UniProtKB/TrEMBL annotation:
Main location class: cytoplasm
Protein name as catalogued: KIF-binding protein
Upper lineage: Eukaryota, Metazoa, Chordata, Craniata, Vertebrata
Similarity-based family: Belongs to the KIF-binding protein family.
UniProt KW keywords: Cytoplasm, Cytoskeleton
Record carries keyword Cytoplasm: yes
GO cellular component: cytoskeleton
Lineage top rank: taxon: Eukaryota
Cited PANTHER family: KIF-BINDING PROTEIN, KIF1-BINDING PROTEIN
Regions of compositional bias (Basic and acidic residues) in chain numbering: 351-371
InterPro entries: KBP, TPR-like_helical_dom_sf
One annotated GO biological process: efferent axon development in posterior lateral line nerve
Length: 637
């Protein structure tokens, strides 16, 4: 800039450095009653820089107005969201007019970010838009491509914050196109925006320029991942999220715990899609990278320092969250394997098991190829560590008890870890959710167990962990959770009852069961009915009246519970004819309720088709049984 003397320019550079320091450093210490004090000071400095640049521009315009009149004509630029067909046309990279426009644009950019940071969004948008207009006078070049990228990133964030996802998508996708086009056409380390206001001796190295530019593009990828998630393009969002995480590792620009938690969260998407290899890789990487955050400070050390105390809590919580993601991985893997292997009555299909075992051999041969084609996290330093964690758990469906147990044990280990942080005292809902997952792990493992006695003991473990909490929880504050627990306990007792009867029938028919077995069977049957009835009673009004109309969220569970109570009443074993008749009469009453409710509310029939069909059959059959018992009692008398 020939018309600007060195002292004037150095003064501009000093103001910019001070503005950056105020924004990035001093603002962290601003008082609560004046949270933007440093940023307001930075804004004043930026305005002074803008005025100086306009003054320099006016002076230079007198010198070069004739020489650059052709260059100053705006070139045709792409609208955001369109192809960059004019790449490489217009100003040359070192055109004085182009560089002046870029510098003014950079100040507008920093003013825009400043206003957004101080919650003045409209003013922020105006400055960012001014930056875009100034850039219309430039072609994309190594001197300004970083600014092209940053301003679109910021506008993308701004519009996403307003829930205008289409606008945000347009800016961010254009930023992505600019980066890709530049790297293809040029690819040299571009000038960073801060260098517009830096003296020559303080210019960045090529390596630092590259790192900053790549980091800006990583932000583009991250914001696009959020936008795609919000507009329902989940697969695309996952791809961009994984690319973002990988780039953060490559650039060594990440917070270990934040990165680990994002990777663990991404694993949950892959799990829901049945992509267990990718899910396991994300979780293994999360486990390894979270270790870079260091050890959790001891409680004594944390008490000595408020910062250490806060860090201790954050580390413990985030590691517990990663543990919970591991629990979901193990649980979903077992449950999906169960769906593949069960027959039409919910038991293990041995033919299907053999077929999948043969298929497994082919899958294992393809697994290595699949891993090589997948986008893997980490560097040479972390690959081995991640692989070691991966080897602890299957990513293929377990096909027998031994494999299922190995997955279960990994999940149970993470249950223990998660419960260390999410304790009942202080985290009631989280603690119970973890216990419910633990119970579900036992239930999934029980499917693979051939020994009926051992399977029954697994269900007993579920009862032991859930029953005390269900009975102790306050219904006023935790009604929905109590209902979930009641229903699960009712089903668990019912499963145990069926297993006990199956075991007994292998030895003798029902009529000749010994008193101990009958007592045990009736206890399990009554316990199941008790919890189903507790669930139904929880639906009553404060006056004790059962609702005439069941809301959608409880319609199916309520009708199923009534059906199951009816079934359980009819299965109670008694030698007394009067008790048998009483049980059958109660059972008939429950079956009739299901039938009558569905007749009164026809839409409800779709929610309980199987139960309704069986209820209708029992409404026809039970009166005949009751009459036979009456006749038998009369004959005995």
């Amino acid at each position: 800039m020939a018309a600007v003397n060195t002292d004037e320019w150095r003064a501009v550079c000093d103001k910019f450095t001070n503005a950056q320091h105020l924004t990035d450093v001093e603002s962290r210490n601003d008082p609560e009653n004046d949270p933007f004090r440093s940023k307001y000071k930075a804004r004043e400095l930026l305005r002074e820089i803008y005025c100086s640049l306009k003054s320099f521009e006016a002076g230079e315009g007198e010198e070069d107005s004739g020489a650059e009149s052709a260059d100053q004509r705006p070139t045709e630029q792409p609208v955001d969201g369109q192809k960059l067909d004019g790449f490489g046309q217009g100003f040359s990279g070192d055109s004085p007019a182009g560089l002046r426009a870029a510098k003014l644009g950079a100040v507008e950019y920093y003013l825009g970010v400043n206003h957004v940071d101080t919650e003045e969004l409209s003013a922020g948008q105006e400055h960012l838009t001014n930056c875009m207009k100034l850039l219309e006078r430039c072609r994309v070049s190594s001197e300004n491509v970083s600014l092209f990228l940053h301003v679109r990133n910021q506008l993308g964030i701004l519009w996403a914050g307003r829930d205008e996802m289409e606008q945000a998508q347009g800016y961010l996708e254009t930023a992505e196109s600019i980066y890709q086009h530049y790297m293809k056409e040029d690819g040299s380390p571009p000038t960073d925006m801060t260098e517009y206001f830096t003296t020559e001796e303080n210019l960045l190295t090529h390596q630092e320029r590259t790192k900053r530019f790549e980091l800006a593009y990583t932000h583009t990828m991250y914001y696009l991942a959020q936008v795609y998630k919000n507009i329902g393009q989940t697969e695309r969002a996952a791809t961009y999220c994984q690319s973002t995480l990988q780039r953060q590792l490559q650039l060594n620009q990440f917070s270990p715990m934040e990165w680990a938690l994002n990777a663990a969260t991404l694993s949950q998407y892959y799990i829901t899609k049945g992509k267990y290899m990718e899910g396991r890789h994300c979780l293994s990487a999360a486990t390894v990278i979270s270790g870079l955050a260091g050890e959790v400070p001891s409680e004594a050390a944390a008490q000595e320092s408020e910062t250490e105390c806060e860090r201790r809590e954050q580390l413990r919580q985030k590691r517990a969250e990663i543990a919970r993601c591991w629990i979901k991985y193990c649980l979903n893997l077992l449950q999906d394997a169960k769906k593949l292997l069960e027959d039409n009555i919910g038991e293990l299909d041995t033919d299907r098991q053999e077929e999948l075992t043969r298929q497994r051999r082919r899958d294992e041969e393809e697994e290595e190829k699949g891993r090589k084609s997948a986008l893997l996290f980490g560097s040479e330093d972390t690959f081995d560590s991640i692989a070691t964690v991966e080897e602890r758990v299957l990513c293929l469906f377990p096909l027998d008890f031994t494999e299922a147990r190995s997955v279960f044990l990994v999940g149970q280990n993470y249950v223990t870890q998660a419960k260390e942080y999410y304790q009942m005292d202080g985290y009631v809902t989280d603690h119970i959710e973890i216990l419910q997952d633990h119970s579900a792990l036992f239930r999934a493992l029980a499917f693979f167990e051939e020994d009926m006695e051992r399977r029954c003991k697994m269900h007993k473990r579920r009862v032991d962990m859930l029953e005390p909490i269900c009975n102790d929880l306050n219904s006023q504050y935790y009604l929905l959770i109590r209902r979930q627990l009641m229903f699960e306990l009712a089903e668990t007792y019912s499963d145990m009852m069926d297993l006990k009867l199956t075991l007994a029938n292998r030895q003798a028919d029902t009529q000749s069961l010994d008193n101990h077995t009958i007592k045990k069977f009736n206890h399990l049957c009554s316990a199941s009915a008790k919890y189903f009835q507790m669930f139904l009673d929880s639906l009553r009004s404060p006056e004790g009246k059962f609702p005439e109309h069941l809301e959608d969220d409880v319609l199916r569970p309520a009708l199923v519970a009534r059906f199951r109570v009816g079934r359980l009443q009819s299965r109670l074993i008694s030698s007394s004819l009067s008790v048998q008749m009483e049980n059958l009469s109660k059972s008939l009453e429950d079956y009739k309720y299901v039938v009558d409710y569905c007749e009164t509310h026809p839409a409800a029939a779709h929610a309980v088709e199987t139960e309704l069909e069986l209820s209708k059959e029992m409404v026809d059959l039970l009166p005949l049984k009751i009459n036979r018992l009456k006749a038998k009692m009369a004959a005995n008398n």
